[in-house]
Design goal:
The complex is a heterodimer of chains A (382) and B (396). By secondary structure, chain A is of the alpha+beta class. Chain A is 52% helix and 15% strand. Chain A is elongated and about 95 Å long. The two termini of chain A are 29 Å apart.
Chain lengths: 382, 396
């Protein structure tokens, strides 16, 4: 502890150099935070997808509908807590570039199945009482400036209404949730869709089933698929987590690309920092000699140089992480293309570890050479 | 004036010649800048490749008819009788009586992606016999064309590469249908190369679509007859359709994704660039400070300060240029032509494409490197020029 003032003053021996080293480490960890955020965004919330929820889709592909009659059979299966269905609406609000997800659901079981969507009780009641009612995520409401009571027209692309060209929805509730929950979706009532669409009556998109024992997910999935085998609509069941993972993999391995970029960034910064440290120790050869003459042990010298390098890394790195965090708090800058925009705590912790490692590795060689320096050599060189 | 040039050249040559003595810190600057250029060029090459695949898919002499309100082929729907009317429209090319138009179905089937062995949404297109004449860029490169009325399919070059089980002679099982691959086709690198083509009539049966289609792709008489074609269809009270040039359709399809990739790419590269500028500043600063005595000596001998400034800048630019070239070459070798596929959100289906490191991207990378070098050299250069001569000479 008593060496902190010494570390501090040697740090500012060359203000110019220290400032720019700090800045480059700052930028490296700002990037670290942002890349990790992008990586999380492209995993589409796989971290929070439930293991006790199974998703049943048509075996041929996701776009093929399933009959609503499966609902009762799924619900009656042993081990099923709750079964419900979702239907992709895919409508356009004002302009195709205003993309957001609209999904037709059965409100009561839907809200029970997804407790992570938090909706005030009076808004739940309003939704159950209004056939044209819809609930929207807080982020989506903010994006379009919607509030409860608004009536919004959405043009159907897959489903055409029996009358007119557009579907009207009343916003009866705005749901919220923890960070990492997708708050950019619109959910509306399936009965409204089913009664008013021109074709496709009695068809739903996919089923979500909550089971009482997550360890039996695989067996339950097989049971369901067997139940509907050889019917006109065979199913394929996966856990919700597996479903989301599969979806993310379709987009491509964004995670691997982000990590490759990060490795490049951190490696470069390591070079810069190590080079600066080496330079700064080289310049102080005579000072190190003086310190040793005064009785500083070799290990203390080692610790001092390493400490200086770690100190630079910690100051620059933590400021960078902080800046990344602050940026992410502003929300998704693309206006809805990256619904899950957050910096996970786990990645912040990883960043902290990397900061210390960077400091240690960058300081190691200069520290060792300072430690091994002979007093006579050091003083003669001066 | 001449004297000044001679001085500048002399000091600059001295600087450049002594770079090997400062190899360590110079390498740091070069590697830093090369890293930024690699990331910039490779990320943008993803967007360039994707956009190129989408752009090459469309032809201005073809028009795509969809139900009005549909935003992609996937969500469109046209009844059989509507299709018959569409084929009557003026402005459409006709060969041997029949209109050069193909009524098509567009669905997706789940097939495992080779790279991850997880299911991917592979687009499957039901076509009419005219399809190959309508799309004249399509050619069978292996096997033969499909026989209409059977379960035979032909598969695009990109799809065979990206998804499992699509080789010539293999059988695809999907639900209760089986399809036999009899040919592989190419389409000038367009998105059709990610698709599986089969007979639309057979697909109607397999997907219980009755006598309905999703789109009609029509070959126009010429690019100029588009308006005639469109106006006739959109003003026809029996129809409720929208007509778009194929090029426009694909341009709009690629907008969102390539915009996102570009945004992310430029954002990352800008930030990394700032980091690399700091790296370059440190390097040049080190270069200046280790030679402060030499620089002071030069100035004491009467060398001009601007010559010193220019020499430092040139050194920094030279390092940046080396970094830029190295980065560009590395990105080109590592990524150009790299085959991958991603999901196109508009149709929910896979698009195979190749990363494309274009000459424009390489030039852009090099320019960016030089800008970084210029900014990185500026501060140290000014510092070198401002160095008080007596103090610098006394310095060790």
């Amino acid at each position: 502890m008593k060496f902190i003032p010494l570390l501090w003053s040697s740090l500012w021996r060359k203000k110019f150099r220290t400032t720019f080293t700090l800045l480059s480490i700052f930028v490296a960890f700002l990037l670290f935070g942002l890349l990790m955020t992008i990586r999380t965004a492209f995993s589409f919330g796989v971290e929070i997808a439930g293991l006790d929820r199974l998703v049943l889709i048509h075996k041929v592909s996701l776009i093929m509908p399933l009959p609503i009659s499966y609902q009762a059979r799924l619900q009656a299966t042993e081990g099923v807590t709750l079964a419900t269905h979702n239907t992709w609406f895919g409508g356009v609000y004002q302009d195709p570039s205003n993309f957001f997800a609209q999904i037709a659901v059965d409100p009561e079981p839907f809200l029970k199945l997804y407790p992570e969507f938090k909706l005030p009780p009076e808004q739940v009641a309003a939704w159950l009482g209004d056939r044209q009612g819809a609930i929207v995520g807080a982020d989506l409401a903010r994006r379009f400036g919607w509030s409860v009571g608004d009536r919004i027209p959405i043009q159907g692309t897959i489903w055409q209404p029996k009358q007119g060209q557009v579907w009207d929805f009343n916003i009866v509730g705005i749901y919220d949730g923890d960070p990492g929950i997708d708050k950019t979706q619109l959910f509306f009532r399936y009965d409204y869709l089913d009664e008013n669409r021109r074709q496709g009556e009695g068809l739903v998109g996919w089923y979500v089933v909550k089971i009482d024992d997550p360890s039996r997910a695989q067996a339950m999935g097989a049971t369901f698929d067997e139940m509907f085998a050889n019917s006109s609509a065979e199913t394929k069941t996966t856990t919700e987590k597996g479903f989301v993972e599969g979806f993310a993999k379709q987009v491509g391995d964004i995670g691997a690309i982000m990590i490759a970029i990060l490795v490049a960034v951190l490696f470069t910064m390591l070079l810069v920092a190590a080079n600066t440290m080496a330079q700064s120790v080289r310049e102080r050869t005579s000072e190190v000699g003086v310190l040793k003459t005064l009785g500083f042990s070799n290990t203390t010298i080692l610790a001092l140089v390493l400490g200086e390098s770690v100190l630079i890394a910690v100051i620059g790195g933590s400021l960078g992480l902080l800046a990344a965090w602050a940026f992410v708090q502003q929300g998704d800058p693309t206006g809805g293309m990256l619904p899950i925009f957050m910096l996970p705590t786990r990645d912040v912790a990883l960043g902290a570890v990397l900061i210390v490692v960077l400091g240690l590795v960058a300081g190691l060689l200069p520290a060792l050479s300072a430690m091994q320096l002979k007093i006579t050599d050091a003083l003669r060189r001066a | 004036m001449f004297n000044w040039i001679a001085q500048t050249v002399a000091v600059t040559a001295l600087n450049l010649r002594t770079i090997p003595q400062r190899l360590g810190s110079s390498a740091v600057a070069v590697v830093g800048i090369a890293g930024v250029v690699i990331v910039l060029v490779s990320v943008l090459s993803i967007a360039a490749g994707f956009t190129a695949a989408m752009r090459d898919s469309g032809s201005p002499t073809r028009a795509l008819v969809m139900r009005s309100g549909a935003d992609s082929e996937m969500t469109s729907g046209l009844a059989g009788p509507e299709v018959d009317i569409i084929k009557q429209a003026p402005g459409l090319r006709r060969g041997d009586q029949a209109a050069l138009a193909s009524a098509e179905l567009y669905v997706i089937i789940d097939l495992p992606k080779k790279s991850t062995s997880t299911a991917a949404n592979v687009p499957m297109r039901g076509v009419e016999p005219a399809a190959l004449t309508v799309r004249d860029e399509v050619s069978i490169v292996e096997g033969r064309a499909l026989q209409f009325g059977t379960n035979e399919v032909i598969v695009g070059r990109g799809a065979t590469g990206q998804f499992a089980g699509l080789g010539l002679g293999q059988t695809i099982r999907s639900g209760q249908n089986t399809w036999e691959v009899v040919g592989i086709f190419e389409a000038d690198g367009g998105v059709a190369e990610t698709e599986i083509w089969c007979d639309a009539r057979v697909l109607q049966g397999a997907y219980r679509r009755g006598n309905s289609f999703q789109t009609v792709l029509a070959r126009l008489d010429s690019s100029d007859t588009f308006d005639t074609f469109r106006d006739w269809l959109t003003s026809n009270p029996q129809l409720n359709v929208q007509v778009r040039r194929e090029t426009e359709y694909y341009a709009q399809q690629s907008q969102a994704l390539s915009g996102l990739i570009r945004g992310v790419g430029f954002g990352i590269a800008a930030l990394m660039g700032i980091g690399a500028v700091f790296g370059a500043i440190l390097t040049m600063y080190t270069a200046v400070s280790t030679r402060s005595r030499e620089i002071a000596t030069l100035r004491a001998l009467g060398f001009n300060t601007t010559s010193v400034v220019v020499s430092v800048l040139v050194e920094s630019l030279a390092l940046a240029a080396i970094g830029g070239v190295l980065g560009g070459v590395a990105a080109y070798l590592a990524f150009n032509g790299y085959q991958t596929s991603t999901m196109n959100f508009q149709t929910f289906s896979q698009v195979a494409f190749a990363f494309s490191v274009t000459p424009q991207l390489l030039v852009m990378g090099l320019v960016y490197a030089l800008v970084m070098g210029l900014i990185g050299g500026l501060l140290p250069a000014v510092r070198a020029a401002r160095l008080p001569i007596p103090a610098a000479l006394r310095e060790l």
